[in-house]
Amino acid sequence: MQKVLILGGGIGGVAAAIAFRKQGFEVELVSERDYLFIYPLAIWIPVGSISFKDVSMPLSKLARKHDFSLTIDKVVALDGIHKTITFEHSGIRNSPALVVVALGASKLTHEGIDFLASICFNS
How big is the chain by its Cα radius of gyration, in Å? Predict the structure, then answer.
């Protein structure tokens, strides 16, 4: 069975894990947190309409339901030349032939973010 390693436990990473499993791949999802957080709904947390538990779901529950493995660790480096991935706790690992990078936009600083004004975000 062909293996795929998915880096990122957000919506994109989880959707990729489910899609690859449906195609018969052996899937490992790596996330630095143990839950899926649904950001678009989070705008209602500061005003008290919903709570964190209403917009999050344990990744372990999704992994069991869709039969993929889950590793909780942080990606600290990708090396395309040596085809390795370095994790904060488990160290360096050779990557499989297929790697999906779904680390999300929160890892980037967006131009103009310093001018954002929102009750949900403090810069």
Answer: 16
What's the DSSP call for residue 10? S
> In which residue are the tokens 């372990």 written?
60
In angstroms, the CA 22 to CA 67 distance is 10
Which pLDDT belongs to residue 42?
73
Kindly state the helix (H) or strand (E) to which residue 98 belongs, with its residue range. strand 98-101
Is 9:59 a contact under the CB 8 Å cutoff?
Answer: yes
Pairing of strands 91-94, 84-87: antiparallel
Domains of the chain (ranges plus CATH)? 3-115 (3.50.50.60)
pLDDT per residue over 93-122, tens digit each? Answer: 998 889 999 987 665 565 666 666 555 555
Q: Are 84 and 94 in contact, with CB atoms under 8 Å apart?
A: yes
